[in-house]
Amino acid sequence: MQNNNWKKWKRKYTGMFYLTPWIIGFLAFQLYPLVMSFLYSFTDFTMLNDYKFVGLQNYIKIFTNDRLFLKSMKATFMYVAIALPLKMIISLFIAGLLNQKLKGISIFKVVYYLPSIFGGSVAITILWRFIFMKTGLLNTLIGALFSGYKAFDWIGSPKTSLPVISLLQVWQFGSSMVLFLAGLKQVPDSLYEAADIDGANAVQKYFRITLPMLSPIILFNLVMQMIQLFQDFTAAFVITGGGALKETYLYGLMLYENGFRYFKMGYASAQSWVLFVIIILFTFAIFRLSDGLVHYED
Amino acid sequence: MSKKKWMALLLAGVVSASALAGCGNQQTKTPEAAGETQEQDSAEGSGRNVNLRFCWWGSDTRHEKTLEALAKYEELTGVHIEGEYSTISSYYEKLVTQLAGGTAPDIVQLDYPWITELAAQGDFFINMEDYDIIDFSKFDMDYTKGWCSEGNKLAALPMAQNGFTLFYNRDVVKETGLAVDESTEWTWDDMIAEGEKFKAANPDKVFLHSDLHTLEKNVFKPYVLQQCGGQWINDDFTVNFTEEQLAKAYSYLLELEEKGLIQPLEETMAYNGNIDQNPVWANGEAALLIRWASDYPSLINDNVQDIGCCRLPVLEDAGDTGINCKPSMVLAINKDSVSVEECLKFANWMMTDEEAIKILGDCRGVPATAEARTILEENDLLNPDLKTGIEIASANAGTAQNGYHDNSEITSISTEILSRVLYRDLTPEEAAQELMNTIEEPLAALAGN
Questions:
Q1: Residue B46 pLDDT > 70, yes or no?
Q2: The CATH number of domain B41-162+326-388 is 3.40.1350.10
Q3: pLDDT computed for residue B22 by the predictor
Q4: Alpha carbon distance B360, B61 (integer Å)
Q5: Closest to B272 (Cβ–Cβ): which among A24, A152, A241?
Q6: How many contacts, defined by CB atoms under 8 Å, are there between A and B?
């Protein structure tokens, strides 16, 4: 009897043992910072001082007396609005191409995934400079195609700096591409065969079979990428430093500057909770809007 | 349970244990524990078994020479010092995080304004004068105390001297006939006049190489200080400058750009903060540059081999030259160090021992002690142009600026507003008003501390 209990207990909890590294990591590096940042958001914590409780003062200041908050919000929304659709469309398109049965297709998969690994490294900053500076690749190319084109610096100009850093994110479409590719492989051939018999053409098959079958993954990617873009920091930090008239002053960069440059950690914590609420609202909105658009098999 | 399962369980245990070890705070040594180490050390008569950490920022040359000095010190004393080095980028952010987490290195290179900034938050560094280890007779104590004290506490030692310098690329000067040498003492208007002649004859060359960061720190601020004199931010958190004075400085910068004497801001934004990497300088196409003298080594490259230094331009009727002279970096000892005494012994060796001075050379600029300067000069280890630059700056030094003058938030605001002037988003008058209004809040916050 006792032996039986032990077996039951073991079956129940063995899995938990395997999860311990993750759970410990989660507690130490996610839950603890989460709770602490919430507490800090009501203090004047600078990382080094004996902080004191300031009530809602940080939150009030964000909405009433922060000259950069709106500017940064605007930049962040623009950034998400440019990068999110482009990234989704490109990753879906490339995943479609990579879904072909061709020799050596895995090489292409690796190549398309590479930008996601390089991310916002210093090397990429230099690459971006060479492409977008006044005497860079892009201007040379446009100049060769259109005579009379007046070259300008894409990174330094307030009108183009945000699209330029958005492209860095778009370029890193690897992870959503992999998910789309996995999704495409799951679509049963029988559906396409049935459509063939009914005389459907390629476009009809794509919009009537492929996209509906992929819709749960599209929703997943949309939500995950949106969250990531709202929090993004690297592109603005390494390429523009938020510059060209603060047009690229992404929310993540503002948080970093307040927290780690001006050491207003309490204030930065409050700002991060505001961002958290914004992300929750958008996620909720996407889920509501997706009702009826997403096709679940079960 | 099969063997495989047990192995997996064991591995999971190891991983979680190491994760735990990773997230634990490195324990701060209690005074008793630190005392034990010291006793042990002195009992053995040497620094064996002592491991210290030393962090600094700088260029590759500085890293190589400092590591060489650390190796030499270990050879001589048995004390192992681990170097933790990087560029200045995010150095301070990292240091503050380490101080907050109790994991900061034992020996720390600082910029002097950080002494004030950190002292406002807590007590992190020892008072050098509490110990009888540093040979203070080798230091100019007025200079040392002037820059490295916080109240009555001597929190650091100056490592080298620094000052604003107008650099000129000798090759470009020779090629274009620009009239500039060591003895040049321009006013800002002279600079524009010379610049216009220069641009007329050499439209493809850049007269004054710049980026936003440099324009704010090395042109805008001195230009304002030359009008108002005194501190940038007073000790009582007020300012001396007026809106008119600010507007005049903004107008001057705008004039430099409109006359083509500096590159348009949008072209230098990609290199902001990395002025030496801009191809205009790297390819030797620019004649002048205003920077700290200690930046000299980073300005030399394959195409720029020969640069000289002269005085920063000064307004004709200036009461103060606004030329900022300061220690280029200072050295502090973490009060939670495993062995404060060993740290001090090393600091003393590094700055006063002839062998150490020779190894380090001018990798931190012109050394702060007269003896070190003599040793380097006698051994031909001191770059004569760098030395000239420091001498000229020191001879023309403006008011010694307090630690608030580099306050990161105020600098950020001032830089942003300057960029709006150069992007034609604000007129000089609007910008002056904007700066006056916007700095009120951070000034009030400083006053509240």
A1: no
A2: no
A3: 36
A4: 10
A5: A241
A6: 98
| Kind of pairing between the strands at B286-292 and B157-169 | antiparallel
Q: Are A18 and B8 in contact (CB under 8 A)?
A: yes
Q: Does B440 contact chain A (CB < 8 Å)?
A: no
- For A20-73, the pLDDT digits (tens) are 999 999 999 999 999 999 999 999 888 887 788 888 889 998 998 888 999 999
B164-325+402-448 shares the fold of B41-162+326-388: yes
- Residues 170-229 of chain A whose Cβ lies under 8 A from any Cβ of chain B: none
d(CA B109, CA B329): 7
Q: A97 forms bridges with which residues in the sheet?
A: none
Do B269 and A245 lie within an 8 Å CB cutoff? no
Structure tokens at B87: 């560029």
Q: Which domains, ranges and CATH numbers included, belong to chain A? A: 66-119+164-290 (1.10.3720.10)
Contact B266 A17 (CB under 8 A): no
Min distance B252 CA to chain A CA atoms (Å): 20
Average pLDDT for B32-54: 55
The C-alpha of A163 sits at a distance from chain B's nearest C-alpha, in angstroms, of: 15
pLDDT at B38: 42
- Annotated domain spans of chain B: 41-162+326-388, 164-325+402-448
Give me the residue from A29, A245, A262 closest to B423, CB to CB.
A245
Please state, in angstroms and rounded to a whole number, the distance separating the CA atoms of residues A221 and A296.
15
Average pLDDT of span B223-249: 91
Paired tokens of A205: 């098959």
Neighbouring-strand partners of residue B345: none
Which pLDDT band holds residue B78 (cuts at 50, 70, 90)?
confident
Low-confidence ranges of chain A (pLDDT < 70): 1-2, 119-120, 297-298
In 3-state terms, what secondary structure has residue A249?
Answer: coil
Q: Which chain A residues have a beta carbon less than 8 Å from that of B118? A: 48
Residue B8 in this model has a pLDDT that exceeds 60: no
Kindly report the nearest CA distance between residue A112 and chain B, in angstroms.
27
Contacts of B20 in chain A (CB under 8 A): 24, 28
Count how many residues are written for chain B.
Answer: 449
Residue of B nearest to A236 (CA): B270
Any chain B CB within 8 A of the CB of A52? no
Of B96, B272, B408, the CB nearest to A47: B96
Count of beta carbons in the 10 Å neighbourhood of residue B31:
9
Give dist(CA A87, CA A75) in Å, integer: 18
- Smallest CA–CA distance, residue A28 to chain B, in Å, is 7
At B4, the pLDDT band (50, 70, 90 cuts) reads low
pLDDT over 90 (residue B41): no
> Average pLDDT for residues B71-93, to the nearest whole number?
89
Q: Which fold has domain B164-325+402-448?
A: D-Maltodextrin-Binding Protein; domain 2 (3.40.190)
Nearest to B99 among A48, A67, A257 (CB): A48
- Residue of A153, A154, A233, A247 to mutate for B, most B C-beta atoms under 10 A: A153
Beta strands in A109-260 (DSSP E): none
